[in-house]
Specification:
By secondary structure, the protein is mostly helical. It has a domain at 30-105 and 125-190. The chain has 5 helices and 3 strands. Helix 1 (30-53) packs parallel to helix 3 (117-143), helix 2 runs parallel beside helix 4 (147-172) and helix 3 (117-143) runs antiparallel to helix 4 (147-172). InterPro entries: TVP23-like.
Length: 203
């Protein structure tokens, strides 16, 4: 399948020369960190409060979709690159085949990355939590028969879920590597249980 073709390339060779003097706990990109959460949290707040603020469904829908679209663009093109050194996109070659490209910033010669731990926590917390909230909204709209809101909620799940999927692929590699990582994790957990301290100690 052409959609599964993956090209792993390095991310921004020039970024290897960025100064590493700041501490890992410091937020080095406060504006990017703010907008990483602003659009997605605003979309959730508007969804929860829109019926109290206005009776116009169209105005609420347009506002939420606009916020979700801004969030998708900002996270995909800006905050992921600045905060965690990851980037993904799709490109079509001359033969018409689709390629998914997943980039990760190279580790520097000293073994340290330019992104801070605080920014990384903010990035992944926002990236994982918000799609889960939209999934909850989807079930709520489905079971409460709010059909008109279902399309808006599905849009939230799709846009934010796409970014989550893309950045997980950037982080762990291809789909094969993702399966391998899960298998290795389960294997390690099994070995820990087997080699638990005192397990082999005679009674």
């Amino acid at each position: 399948d052409s959609n599964d073709d993956i090209e792993d390339v390095s991310l921004f060779d020039a970024d290897d020369d960025v100064s590493r003097r700041s501490k890992k706990s410091k937020i080095r990109h406060p504006v990017a960190s703010f907008f990483h959460l602003f659009f997605r949290v605003s979309a959730i707040v508007v969804y929860l409060l829109c019926e109290l603020l206005t009776s116009s469904f169209i105005a609420c829908m347009v506002t939420i979709i606009l916020l979700l679209s801004c969030d998708f663009w900002a996270v995909k093109n800006v905050t992921g690159r600045l905060m965690v050194g990851l980037r993904w996109w799709n490109q079509v070659d001359d033969d018409g085949r689709s390629h998914w490209v997943f980039e990760a910033r190279k580790v520097s010669a000293q073994g340290s990355k330019t992104s801070s731990e605080a920014e990384s926590r903010i990035f992944w917390l926002g990236l994982i939590t918000c799609p889960m909230i939209w999934v909850i909204f989807a079930f709520s709209a489905l079971f409460s028969f709010k059909v008109k809101w279902l399309a808006v909620v599905v849009m939230g799940v799709v846009l934010q879920g796409a970014n989550l999927y893309g950045y997980i692929r950037c982080k762990v590699g291809s789909r094969k590597n993702l399966t391998s990582m899960a298998t290795n994790y389960l294997g390690k957990q099994f070995l820990r249980q087997v080699s638990f301290p005192g397990f082999w100690k005679p009674s």
